[in-house]
Structure formats: C-alpha cells, structure tokens
C-alpha cells in the first residue's frame, strides 16, 4: 500500500491532489491514501472562516469548500487530524471523527481507524499546558480566548489513546513529540531554523503528551507538521525494542518538502476506511466521563478496563459492519458568485454522522453546551480570570506564517 503523507494542508487541496497526480504519472505508481497532519482548514463557508484562528491576511477561502460542495471530488481517500488553524466549529461537530467531505475523513480530536489492515491513529490540536486538564468547554461562536483554546490538546483525549494496546502502524500528531530532535540531526535543524535553537537546547520544543504517546504506542511510523520544515528521526525504544521512524513535513508551497510517499506491506486492495474495534470500545468506555466544562478533568483510576465494551462493540460491528456513517452536509457551501460579506455567527450543529455514531454505540449526545447546565457552572462562569493569550509555543509557526507570502 502506498500512502502519501503531507504536512500542513492550509486548505490547498487542489494543489496537493494535483501534485499527487503528477507524481503518480512521473513515477508510475498508484497512491492508495493521503494522510495529512493538520492545519487542514476544512472551511465550508464564510461563517466557518470566522472560527479559524489565523492572521487576517491568511483568512482566505482556499479550496476545501469545492470538495465539501461536491464541485470537486477528492481523488484519493484522505485522512486528516486537526492542527491550530482549523474551522474548529466544524471539527467539533465531528469530535468522534467522520467525513468532512466525501472521501475526506477527519480522524477526530483523537482517533484510530483502519484502512485495509493498516491501523492509523492520531491526536488533533497542539499542546498548551494551561489548558491541558480542562474539559472541552469551547462552543461556537468563539471569543478571543476560546478560538485558541478549542484546539489545545486535552488530557482526556490523550488518556483514551493511552488505552490503545494493539499495535498501530501509523500515528499522527500536529506538533512534534517533545524531545524528538535528539533522535535526528538537530544541528542541521537549528542551522536552517535559528529561532528553534533555544527550544531545542532547553528541550522545550514539542508536545509532552505526544512524547508520552510515542513512548507508549511505539508505532513504526509517526508523522507531524506544524513547524513548517522537514525533519526525520529514528527512535529506538529500549535496547531490543521496536523502532519508530519519525518524519515532520513542511506545508504545501512550491519547492518545499511537504510530501512523502511510504510503502506499507498490506493485504491486496481495494481498501476503505473502517471503524476500529478497540478504539470504539475505548470511546464507549470513556464517554461517561467526557469532560465538557472548565473544570479540571480528573479520574480516580486512569486505567479503565474495556474488555466488556470490546465484546459489546465486536458484536455490534459483526451485525452492522464497520463502515463509517455517510457524509452529510450540515452548512451551505461557499458560493463564489454570491460571497457573503457579513457572515452569521457559527452556532453548534448536531451533525447526523455524529448522532448516528452515538446511536450505534448507544451513547448520549453531549457535544452541545446544554449538557453542562445540570452541573456546577461556578467554575465555567469565571472566564474573565482565565489565562489566555500566551501562545508562545505557536510563535515559530506564526513568525514563519508572517514571513511567507501565500
Ligand atoms: Mn500549525
């Protein structure tokens, strides 16, 4: 199976698919799947664009809407995670994962799916310590604080991924695992990217939860993006342990290293995206403690036994199949002939894919804020005192964005 891996998409689907078509022709290969490591920008219309945390000069429609509206069709099955520049309102509708457009699958805030017999996991967002232990309290429309914190990685989602016991083939995180530079040529990296030097030397470059997941999951491949440069590394887990090939990739610009094709041994195709039994069991087990407020998320025993859920999920999948529920449009797509200058504020929408998924797992719908009304709201009422704005780790990304002409 040939899998094309891409760094940040930034809404440039036309360009990436075009590059892949040319690559297939030039090399005489067939690409089976595209995976993208975040900053996908699944922007459907002007309202979504207001939910993306991005400097105004980069607040542009780009090309996802064509694939969402049906005007264009993704020529390769595409799987993506979220980064720090996303239509977060739309990704929240699909918190558990789902089709963002036909043939384009969002892995969820955390998720695992199967493509053929290849098992792919991922964690969306970037790490920010001050928000790590909070619940997912953010709802559209976002303010200046929640438009940023909505994509900050949560302990809850990492904990779910820490429960994955069966081997994964590929894992994706948007920011790099903390300390990863020690396993590659960091001297080259800081020569080309001077502003990483201090963080590399202080061992502060990257995400601590991603590093913990890397240590726990030990997948053969780990891909990241975010810092807009290529960086390979090889991690040897223990003396006789397995190895992980790490690769960070750039964003999609001419002359940049934004694509890599890997060849993974697999069953013969055709392949399709399918639900993963172990992941659904973990999702089912953890949904009862899904934290949805400002309150600090703690759980008495962090090791939950999922065996009963596993059995239950297996019989459900045997009865109904493991194919994800069909794509459904939930917002009008952008119409270039009728641009909207004053878009309405985005509000939460119950995506039928998510509703079907939860019905399938016999779980309640919790993604709208009404769920927390019965809980103690004192904590969530104190927004004014909440720290925000210190997004220093994002600086390299934003500094580089500011230098680039897109
Ligand atoms: Mn990013």
Automatic annotation (TrEMBL):
UniProt entry keywords in alphabetical sequence: Hydrolase, Iron, Manganese, Metal-binding, mRNA processing, Nucleus, Zinc
GO molecular function: metal ion binding; RNA lariat debranching enzyme activity
Domain of life: Eukaryota
Domain Lariat debranching enzyme C-terminal per the UniProt entry, residue ranges: 235-367
Region (Disordered): 373-406
Cofactor: Fe(2+); Mn(2+); Zn(2+)
Ranges of compositional bias, category Acidic residues: 391-406
Subcellular localization(s) per the UniProt record: Nucleus
Assigned GO CC terms: nucleus
Keyword check for Transmembrane helix: no
InterPro entries per record: Calcineurin-like_PHP (IPR004843), DBR1_C (IPR007708), Dbr1_N (IPR041816), Metallo-depent_PP-like (IPR029052)
GO terms under biological process: mRNA splicing, via spliceosome
Family: Belongs to the lariat debranching enzyme family.
UniProt-recorded name of the protein: Lariat debranching enzyme C-terminal domain-containing protein
Organism expressing this protein natively: Brachypodium distachyon (Purple false brome)
Gene: LOC100845942
